[in-house]
Structures are given as structure tokens and as C-alpha cells.
Design a protein that fits this description.
The complex is a heterodimer.
Chain A: H1 2-30, H2 41-55, E1 63-64, E2 73-74, H3 81-97, H4 101-115, H5 117-127, H6 130-141, H7 144-149, H8 158-180, H9 185-202, H10 209-230, H11 233-238, H12 241-262, H13 265-276, H14 295-298, H15 303-310, H16 312-331, H17 335-354, H18 363-382
Helix pairs in contact in A: 1-4, 1-6, 2-3, 4-8, 5-6, 5-8, 6-18, 8-9, 9-12, 10-13, 10-17, 16-17, 16-18, 17-18
Chain B: H1 7-28, H2 32-35, H3 38-64, H4 70-100, H5 107-119, E1 125-127, H6 133-140, E2 154-158, E3 165-170, E4 176-182, E5 185-189, H7 190-199, H8 203-211, E6 221-226, H9 228-231, H10 233-240, E7 257-260, E8 263-267, E9 272-280, E10 283-290, E11 293-300, E12 303-313, E13 319-323, E14 329-335, E15 341-345, H11 347-350, H12 353-359, E16 368-374, E17 378-383
Parallel strand pairs in B: 1-6, 12-14
Antiparallel strand pairs in B: 2-5, 3-4, 4-5, 6-17, 7-15, 8-9, 9-10, 10-11, 11-12, 12-13, 14-15, 16-17
Chain lengths: 390, 386
């Protein structure tokens, strides 16, 4: 019996751990919900859209008669992936269990928050190891900034906006790893899947561009690093030809699924995204800019405030980067995760200097860094690794 | 785990797992009040660290019995430390957020919006600031002027005016009406329209502005004045006075000063009671109550200045107004009936439509008919256009 238990733990510990993380992640978000209404203002915007889709035979009505009185507004195809996704999940869930809308709206954001564990696990497993992946999954699900935005009864878009980039990046790095081994049918399938997820992400959130930038910057950084090692530009590019081809498929799928609907906007907003968001509070216009009064957009941050807000996990990420850079310097390993963490750290850092609320963007790199740091310590204590540079 | 697992480590792993699950479940069996209490936190820490200590003792015994290697011993200890860090940094903080975060919506708003849903025409527009827009469309299912997704939107209407381009029309209190004329239409910002209806003391201007938002063929439009707009006055006054030619100070912000009661003390030789409402170290409003009448002052350092106007409810429950045009401090004090909170407003705000609707429940207004209030938080008015 004990041997059997040992065997199950040995083979299934990841699944057991992930199930526990997801169950507790959802449970903590749901605990002590005691109101007959939803939690936030924007919750009702999404709740209404979801209800409208359901009552309108699976599609948003062509007009929004309740907005912008007296005329209402035409609905244009927009970044509505989330409300469609939620509405269809509800329809299936309701058909299967009979759950009512209000109960579903309590559960759904909590579940999305808890399910962050899954893409985070695959992302970190692909780039480092299983132990780091499981721990990163736990840290992202229970990250306090993310917790506050994915509580039960708050079906705002935060949950989907947090989980989608993780899915895209997990798929991308799995694709990258497969394509590094050579060009196969699996490379094409994974590239197609990544492209599809990226397009879905475009249909989810206007700030989608940061994922395109991460992917592009990562690939460019790899080529540049190779160039510094070889001093041969064409050779450096050729040595990443399968990854570049895979990248081309991903971007082609994105454009194929978005340009026919949105015109040149996906291209323009991807390029201008990192620069345009800083103008969000500009008042040099004909009419008042209401964004100047939106509290969460107002306060710019500085390095000290960023550290204060994040607390101890900030230093876990820094220590993790120090270890990874040391390991890279000694044995030329972990380059992929170093590049990803640096890109994912610098981007939000700049964004947070513009508005402190963007500290939420640190949650994923911090969870990854913390998971890697603790995993490394475990590897050293368990004897798997003999030294810091292993 | 990649490390080898024998039956002893498996048993130990199960014990650790059981401990971890117990600790996580135990913490989740709370409410906001409980989880924040010192006593509960002490008990929880005791369970957390006592359990960890027991596990360390157990694995130390196993190490002494040579059942465990040093690596296994260290691995369990590191795992425990990681778990303790996780519980303290992530899990407990998450639980506190979940249990104590509360809601933006309140019971007063919930009841008000359900009342609107059940008692107004479906075509009735509910006008107010943009923040509760999604509440109104989501719960009351009534049209709104704007909401969190359309704060910056404009309204374009046909006009007989032949002007072209931007025209700025000044109104009372420095209100600017930015009008953009083009091809027989005029465009205005919704935020400036609603800001104007809150800030102006000209009821006719408010009615004229709101008339453009009435649904065609519908004779009902309602207006909500709610307590959150007191704190947001700096923004609705700013947008009402916003003028694109005034860069970099585009608009002017005015605030209601809300001051809680610090204390009250009797002045025996004058048979009076002095109520102190301090808002800075050397500044406070002082209200002297003598024979059921109150006189307001602003105390700075040790000097008292008279305040021009005041509204309050006396001991008999009667609303009383006080005015002294010779006073040094221009503005009005509004005292809540419990006397726990004082509200000071500058002359620009004292006659604003919001002040008259929210603080005086529409007293003296002709076209804004008070309908109903919910807990002093939400006040609903029907706008009569006749």
C-alpha cells in the first residue's frame, strides 16, 4: 500500500498539486460572498452583455439602446471575445447543471483566476522545470493584485485579460522549443494554435500588443545574442530559420483573422501601442478628457513605490535573475527564461512609472522568478544540482 | 518529484500534504471580522508553526534512524519554509482580500435601481455622473447619458445655428460650454453637459441641457444625486469649467470640505456647547450652540472668524438657516442632523444644482421633482420639462 502511494505521488504529484491550487484558488475567491448583487460597477457592463448574447440567440444585439441616450449606439465588431466566451460557457453550464446566471457570475471570475495555474505551469515547465512551474502556478493564482481583480462576483474582463496572454506565451514557448528541434508537422500545428490564440487575444483586449512585443523582442534578442557570439549576421538569422518561420506563421494567422475585420488597426496599434498609452491623459483636445479623473490611471509610480507595492516577491525575482544570469555566464544556459523575464520585467516597469496601477503586470514575471528561485533551492538541497551554476 | 521516493518519504509527504491542506482549509473557515482579529491570527500562527515544528521533529527522528538522507531532511525543511512563506505572503493576504474587499454597490443603490426598474417607464433616461452608468443599465435596465465605457463620448444634434467651428459659451460660476458647430450640427461633450447640470445654479440651464437627452416620444427623465458625488465634485466642477483655450489649467476644481466631529465641550459660564470639527492641525470649524441656535466660526491658530452661512437641524428637528453677510469667511456650512459631520462649501458650490438636490432634497427647485431617497445615499428626481 505504501509503495503504491509512493508510486502515485511520484507519477501524479504535478496533477495533484495543480488540482489543489485550482480548487483552493477558486475556493478562496468564493469564500464568504454575502451580497445579492455583483461586486463592481464594470461587472454589470459585462453581465449585461453576457445576458444580451444569451437572450439574443447567441449574438450581441446590433444596437445598444441603453448606452448614450437618447439615440443609443450601434454595436460594431469589437474586442468582445470575453463576453461571447462567458455567454457560451454559461449556456453549456446552465444546460448541464441548471445553474442560474447570478451564481455563474459569482463562479466564473473565480474560476478564471484559479485556472491561471494551467498556462503558467506549462510556460514555466517549458522554460525551466516542473517544480518551478508548480510553484509559479501557485504564486500567480494567489498573487494579491490578481486576487483583488478576479474575486467571485466580479465578472470584469480582468480574469480573461490575465489568462489569455499566459496561454499565448505558453503556446509560443512550447512552439519555440519544438521548432528549435527542427521543422516538423508538429511545429506547424503548434504555430497555428499559437496564432489562433494570439488572434483570440486580439479580440479580447486593446492592450494585446504587449504580447506581440514580448514574442518579437524575444526572437530578436535570441538572434542578436547569436550575432554577438558569431559576428555573422546571416548565419545568426539562418540558425533561427525554423523559429522565424514559426513566428511568421503566428503573425500571419493573427493578421489573417484580424485585418479583414479591423483593417490596418491590428498592425498600427501593435506598432504604436507602447507609445500611445502614455498619451491617455492628454488634454490638448476639443473636449474634456475624462481619463484625467480616472483614479486608477492617475498616479505615476517610481521604483521605490513599485517595490513597496510588490513587497518581498520583488526581491525573489531579483535574486532569481541574479542566479539565472550567473548560471548563464558560467554555463550558457537558461538564456530563454532570462530574456523572457527581462522583457517581461522592463515593459511593466516603464508602464508602472506612467501609472502605478500597472504593478499588476509584474505578477506573472514575479511568480515565474519566485518559482525558479525556490525550485533552484530545492534542487540544491535535494542533491539534483550540485552548484548554483548547474 | 524527480528525487527518489521511498515508502518513508511517501508517508512523510502525505503527512505534509495533510498538514498543508488542513492549514489552508482552516484559514478559509472565517469571515472578514474573524480573520482580522488579533486572537484568531495568534491561534492560526500557533497552528501553522506548531504543525511545522511537529513535522521537523518527525523528519529529524527519521534522519536519526537513518531512514532519511541529509538531502531528504533538507528538502522537507526547505519545502516547509516555502510553504510557510506562501501562506504568509500569498495565501493569508489573498483570503483577507477576498473576505474583506466588499462591494462597490451598496444596498441603497441596489434598492434604488430595482425601484427604478419597477416604477419608471422603460424609455425613461436616468441621468447622473458616468460612474454608476453600468449599474443603471445593468440593474435598472434604463438608458443613461454615459457610463464607464463612454465617459468621453459626445452628443451631436441638429441645429439651425449657422456658425462653424468651436464656440465657447460662458455660464455662471465660470462654466464653459464647448460647442462644436459643423454642417448644421452641434457637438458637445456629455461629461461637460452633466458636469454643468451638477454645478450650475441656473435650473433652466440644467433643464435645457437635459432635454437633449430625453428619448424621443418619452416624457420621463430622471436624475440621480448621490453621496459619492460629494467627493467627486472636484471633477464635475473641473469638467463643467473646462475650456480648451485655458491650457495648462483647463478647468477649475471646487471641493466640498467634509469634516468629522472631533469633540464637543460645554462652556458653562455661557450656557453653550462648542462643537469642534478639525480639518488641519491649527484649523477647525467651531460651532457654538446656545439656546438651540448655532453660530459657526472658523478657528485658525487662536483667532475666530465668522462663517457667512449655515444650515442645520435644531434640537426640535426644525431646519434652520443662519446668514451673516458681514462674515469674514464666505461660504456655507451644512451640518448633518446627527452633528457627526460638517460640510463646508465655497460660494460657487453652495447654490449648485447638486447641493440643492442632494443636501436640500430639491427644496426650491421647480423642475426637479424629488421622488425618493434611499438611506441618504441615493436621491432620485424626476425632471419636468414643462
Amino acid at each position: 500500500m505504501k509503495q503504491k502511494l509512493a508510486s502515485i505521488l511520484l507519477r501524479r504529484w504535478v496533477i495533484i498539486a495543480l488540482i489543489l491550487i485550482i480548487v483552493f484558488g477558486a475556493y478562496v475567491r468564493l469564500v464568504d460572498y454575502r451580497w445579492p448583487y455583483l461586486r463592481n460597477i464594470d461587472s454589470y457592463n459585462f453581465a449585461r452583455d453576457i445576458e444580451d448574447i444569451i437572450s439574443n440567440h447567441g449574438a450581441l444585439p446590433a444596437r445598444n439602446e441603453l448606452a448614450q441616450a437618447p439615440f443609443g449606439v450601434d454595436r460594431v465588431i469589437s474586442q468582445d471575445f470575453y463576453v461571447y466566451f462567458a455567454a457560451y460557457v454559461y449556456m453549456f453550464y446552465h444546460a448541464a447543471t441548471g445553474t442560474e446566471m447570478f451564481q455563474f457570475l459569482l463562479l466564473f471570475p473565480a474560476l478564471l483566476g484559479a485556472l491561471l495555474a494551467v498556462p503558467m505551469y506549462f510556460l514555466v515547465k517549458t522554460l525551466y522545470d516542473k517544480k518551478a512551474a508548480v510553484m509559479a502556478a501557485a504564486f500567480i493564482v494567489f498573487d494579491t493584485a490578481i486576487m483583488a481583480r478576479t474575486l467571485a462576483g466580479d465578472p470584469d474582463s480582468d480574469g480573461i485579460v490575465l489568462i489569455m496572454p499566459l496561454i499565448v506565451l505558453a503556446l509560443y514557448f512550447m512552439t519555440y522549443k519544438i521548432s528549435s528541434a527542427g521543422f516538423t508537422k508538429k511545429t506547424i500545428i503548434m504555430s497555428l494554435l499559437t496564432g489562433l490564440s494570439l488572434a483570440a487575444w486580439y479580440y479580447t483586449w486593446s492592450g494585446y500588443w504587449f504580447v506581440v512585443w514580448i514574442i518579437t523582442s524575444f526572437l530578436l534578442a535570441k538572434i542578436v545574442i547569436r550575432f554577438f557570439g558569431t559576428k555573422k549576421i546571416m548565419y545568426s538569422i539562418r540558425s533561427f530559420k525554423t523559429q522565424i518561420f514559426s513566428y511568421a506563421i503566428i503573425i500571419a494567422i493573427l493578421l489573417l483573422l484580424t485585418v479583414p475585420v479591423f483593417g490596418a488597426s491590428p498592425i498600427v496599434s501593435t506598432v504604436t501601442g507602447p507609445f500611445s498609452f502614455q498619451e491617455i491623459k492628454s488634454e490638448a483636445k476639443t473636449f474634456p478628457n475624462v481619463y484625467v479623473s480616472v483614479a486608477e490611471l492617475q498616479a505615476p509610480g517610481d521604483a521605490k513605490e513599485i517595490i513597496n507595492r510588490i513587497g518581498m516577491p520583488f526581491f525573489f525575482l531579483v535574486f532569481s535573475l541574479i542566479y539565472l544570469l550567473y548560471s548563464f555566464a558560467k554555463k550558457r544556459q537558461h538564456a530563454d527564461i532570462i530574456i523572457l523575464l527581462l522583457i517581461w520585467f522592463v515593459g511593466p516597469f516603464i508602464a508602472t512609472l506612467a501609472a502605478i496601477r500597472f504593478t499588476i503586470l509584474f505578477s506573472a514575471p514575479i511568480a515565474i522568478g519566485t518559482g525558479i528561485l525556490f525550485s533552484k533551492i530545492l534542487r540544491l538541497t535535494s542533491g539534483e544540482d550540485k552548484s548554483m551554476d548547474d | 518529484m524527480e528525487a527518489k521516493i521511498n515508502k518513508y518519504t511517501a508517508v512523510m509527504a502525505v503527512i505534509v500534504l495533510a498538514y498543508a491542506v488542513f492549514i489552508l482549509v482552516f484559514a478559509a473557515q472565517t469571515t472578514c471580522g474573524v480573520i482580522q482579529s488579533q486572537q484568531w491570527q495568534e491561534n492560526y500562527s500557533l497552528a501553522l508553526y506548531a504543525g511545522a515544528a511537529v513535522i521537523i521533529v518527525l523528519i529529524s527522528i527519521m534522519r536519526a534512524s537513518k531512514v532519511f538522507t541529509n538531502h531528504e531532511l533538507m528538502t522537507f525543511i526547505v519545502l516547509l519554509i516555502i510553504f510557510l512563506l506562501f501562506v504568509n505572503i500569498y495565501y493569508m493576504e489573498s483570503l483577507k482580500i477576498s473576505e474583506c474587499a466588499g462591494t462597490v454597490l451598496s444596498n441603497n443603490w441596489w434598492e434604488a435601481l430595482n425601484w427604478i426598474k419597477n416604477n419608471t417607464k422603460e424609455c425613461a433616461v436616468v441621468a447622473t455622473y458616468w460612474d454608476p452608468g453600468h449599474f443603471i443599465t445593468g440593474i435598472a435596465r434604463r438608458p443613461v447619458v454615459f457610463d464607464g465605457a463612454s465617459q468621453g463620448s459626445t452628443i451631436t444634434l441638429p441645429t439651425n445655428d449657422t456658425r462653424n467651428g468651436i464656440v465657447i459659451e460662458p455660464e455662471d460660476h465660470g462654466i464653459s460650454r464647448v460647442l462644436f458647430f459643423k454642417d448644421g450640427t452641434v457637438t458637445r461633450a456629455r461629461i461637460q453637459d452633466i458636469g454643468t447640470t451638477l454645478f450650475t445654479s441656473n435650473e433652466s440651464l440644467a433643464v435645457k441641457t437635459l432635454k437633449d437627452y430625453k428619448k424621443p416620444g418619452c416624457d420621463e427623465l430622471y436624475y440621480i444625486a448621490s453621496s459619492d458625488l460629494i467627493g467627486k465634485s472636484q471633477w464635475w466642477t473641473y469638467f463643467a469649467t473646462w475650456n480648451p483655450t485655458n491650457a495648462p489649467n483647463y478647468g477649475k476644481a471646487y471641493n466640498y470640505v467634509i469634516v468629522p466631529l472631533e469633540g464637543a465641550k460645554p462652556i458653562l459660564d455661557q450656557n453653550a456647547v462648542a462643537f469642534m470639527y478639525r480639518f488641519a492641525q491649527n484649523s477647525a470649524f467651531v460651532l457654538y450652540e446656545v439656546n438651540n441656535t448655532i453660530r459657526p466660526f472658523l478657528q485658525q491658530q487662536n483667532t475666530l472668524f465668522k462663517v457667512e452661512k449655515m444650515w442645520y437641524t435644531d434640537r426640535n428637528g426644525e431646519t434652520k438657516a443662519y446668514s451673516d453677510p458681514t462674515a469674514d469667511i464666505k461660504g456655507t456650512i451644512w451640518l448633518d442632523s446627527s452633528r457627526q459631520t460638517l460640510l463646508f462649501m465655497t460660494p460657487e458650490l453652495e447654490n449648485s444644482m447638486f447641493t440643492r438636490m442632494f443636501l436640500f432634497s430639491g427644496y426650491g427647485l421647480k423642475n426637479f421633482e424629488f421622488v425618493k431617497a434611499w438611506g441618504g445615499e441615493v436621491k432620485l428626481f424626476k425632471v419636468n420639462f414643462d
